[in-house]
Amino acid sequence: MASEAEKTFKKFAAFEDSSSNGTEMNNKNFSKLCKDCGIIDGKTVTTTDVDTAFNKAKLTRGKNGGNITFQQFTEAMKELAQKRFKEKSPDEGLKDMYKLMEGKEPATTASLKATTVGAVDHLTDIKYTGSHKKHFDESGKGKDITGWEETTDGCVSGNKGAGTNDKKN
């Protein structure tokens, strides 16, 4: 039976990687695991430490690619545990690292939704007095094309050539 740490490893190993079966993890997902599980604290363990630990673990594999197995992952975690939990033995530190990982899953970013507030909200606000007001009736419902007709001759007011937009020179 797989340990909680191994279950978490597999979840992160397969995250956004359709070619992964969860037995090997790439550097991007290793970094994500360390961030999402709170292993990176910005003080004793930084993103640089995480990258260094991953690359050291990867080297034990030789030239077989850029991923690590769970066994190599354990070695990387031991190295990070010595930085994060300096006062504890390597084995105790590793246990504490695994406690940080228990029950964790990769966090996903919220999907983007269309906004109806902010810059576009005033366009349908019946109290709005800006240039778009003429395009809406009192209830905020859009008018037909008659509400969109131009009311100027196309020239900038105060321009010495005002009113000559359609005339040929």
TrEMBL record:
Pfam families membership: p25-alpha
The UniProt record lists the keyword Cytoplasm: yes
InterPro entries assigned: EF-hand-dom_pair (IPR011992), TPP/p25 (IPR008907)
Keywords of this entry: Cytoplasm
Originating organism: Otolemur garnettii
Alphabetical GO biological process terms: microtubule bundle formation; microtubule polymerization; positive regulation of protein polymerization
Top-level taxon of the source organism: Eukaryota
Family classification: Belongs to the TPPP family.
Chain segments carrying region Disordered: 131-169
Annotated GO CC locations: cytoplasm; microtubule
Protein name: Tubulin polymerization promoting protein family member 2
GO molecular function: tubulin binding
Biased composition (Basic and acidic residues): 135-146
Compartments reported by the entry: Cytoplasm
